[in-house]
Write a structure and sequence with these properties.
Distance between the termini: 52 Å
Shape: elongated
Order of helices and strands: HHHH
Radius of gyration: 18 Å
Structural class: mainly alpha
Helix content: 55-70%
Number of strands: 0
Amino acid sequence: MNDAELFTRLFYFGTAHLHMSADEFWLTPLGAFLDLWTCHKQWLGIEKPHVERSVDDIIPLDCF
């Protein structure tokens, strides 16, 4: 996928799914747009939120 195809898809996602105007899409920083798109996918149940886990979450202290 080249850059033109990628931005065409992102423009479609922004205007059709996130209901942004063309000006809003082009003026939104890329990182902020990708965060909005990830939140939208989480809302639809397509993607799960990232969860950080530590060793204590996996191996509880009371098992020793």
